[in-house]
Amino acid sequence: MADEAKAKGNAAFSAGNFSDAVRHFTDAINLSPTNHVLYSNRSAAYASLNQFSEALSDAEKTVELKPDWAKGYSRLGAAHMGLRRYADAASAYRKGLQIDPANDALKSGLADAEAATSPFGEAFGPEMWVRLASDPSTREYLQQPDFVKMMQDVQKSPNNLNLYLKDQRVMQALGVLLNLKFQGREESPERKRPAEGDDPVKVEKKMQPEPEPEPEPEPMEISEEDREKRERKAAAQKEKEAGNAAYKKKDFETAIHCYSKAVELDDEDISFLTNRAAVYLEMGKYEDCIKDCDKAVERGRELRSDFKMIARALTRKGTALVKMAKCSKDYEPAIETFHKALTEHRNPDTLKKLNDAEKAKKDLEQQEYYDPKLADEEREKGNQYFKEQKYPEAVKHYTEALKRNPNDPKAYSNRAASYTKLGAMPEGLKDAEKCIELDPTFSKGYTRKGAIQFFMKEYDKALETYQEGLKHDPNNQELLDGIKRCVQQINKASRGDFSPDELKERQAKAMQDPEIQNILTDPVMRQVLTDFQENPKAAQDHMKNPLVMNKIQKLVSAGIVQVK
Q: pLDDT tens digits for 316-330?
């Protein structure tokens, strides 16, 4: 049961339904309170809901239960990051890396935590552009592409600030972000009040300052190395644009050449690699695509590139791995890669690719496992155990038979019988219905289903099932006997031949049936029931309506209405 709740939680999390995921993981924890994975999963779901205090509590429980599990420290660090406890986050990530030094998620988390604790961590945060746009001294710089590019570079990695300290615009921006005041031009002297007897008009003219000429922009001091770097970046962007144009025209060879040139000119922009990987993917060169994606991820980690860019590279790699898959096992690395991409950035397209890959893997597993001959052998083993009254063993072999041949109605019928013997009525009912779905003419399916409904004291439903079976096999003695038993119980109910406790139990069970609930809330049926008590003539008229009588019979069978 805990595994089932966990599976539901995982499915809800993958679909982005984080509240449902929390609920399912909570159900699983109640059933298995020492399972560290469940607390880890719920911590991730809470974090996705920005409920970081709850995420922290679950992460701490995860580490407590499994202190040698690196992923627990990843959850712990993420929760601390959400609560802006950056030093604690860094400490958690370091502990995790002591257990798993090669863990990319822990490395990335540690880098983020350390950046957040640096003096410039907040200065170059998300509010940077708002503050620059709000200050008159830096507002105009945002219209200059080279300035924007430099600030984006610094925002990605504050350590890159050293590359641009000679640019006066960057220094001015740094002053605004750090609330430092730079000496500027002197303010105009305050106006003096006119002396008594002075001509107000002349005084006003004298008080108006002479217009100052616009200052000439001072030449920026740029080193030869910086100038060369800018030129190479600009050239790389032109090559990228040319590659994009060629890609749209499906001129893949030219696109590869342009993107390769861009990579040579500037190795600090991983979009050149991901774009080239996209071309390789279109060309069917999946190995080359994967190599470029791996390079993009590795270089992106070093440069602390945008998580979306890294996620894009991982998604592209996963797509290539899916294209290369030839058996169900080949889908495993693709699925793992998609999961990694989603931890970087939750993209709907990536999520769809993950779901498609998981479905394709499952379908292939069924195809690879399909073997009707072995299925028959497993079913016979199940039959032998059933005869020996070893019902759990019988269920095991019937289940294996269905894995080998999921379209065998006999295996579903036999497993339904085993479930019935074990008292697992809902599971048995489900198998009986599947048996009928696969072969509507197979009478065993109806006898299994009718027997289960009879045991569940749903006599009217069991009667309908037996009657439906007789349409396909009119002389089947099991079906005829089933009808006889149901009629006896229904007549017994109509006479009220039940003990008070038994009647109360039947009525309580019936009130949970949606069909009974609909009948009792139907205004027409409520009037009919009233007429049966107060207006005998109207009741006789209702008796002529077969639909009404059918509903009355259901209420009688359920013990809700008693006929005297």
A: 999 999 999 999 999
Following DSSP, what letter does each residue of 128-171 receive, concatenated?
HHHHHHHSHHHHGGGG-HHHHHHHHHHHH-GGGGGGGTT-HHHH
Length of the chain: 564
Q: Is the CB of residue 425 less than 8 Å from the CB of residue 455?
A: yes
Number of H helices, E strands in the chain: 31, 0
Phi, psi torsion values for 209, nearest 5 degrees = -70, 150
| Separation CA 258–CA 253 (nearest Å) | 9
Residue 137: what residue type? S
Architecture of domain 370-495: Alpha Horseshoe (1.25)
The CATH architecture annotation of domain 229-369 reads Alpha Horseshoe (1.25)
What pLDDT, in 10s, does the model give residues 268-288?
Answer: 899 999 999 999 999 999 999
How far apart are alpha carbons 253 and 272 in whole angstroms?
Answer: 15
- Distance (Å) of CA 156 to CA 78, 243, 310: 19, 25, 13
Nearest to 236, CA basis, from 193, 268, 214: 268
d(CA 339, CA 522): 50
Furthest-apart CA atoms within the chain: distance in Å: 129
pTM, two decimals, is 0.44
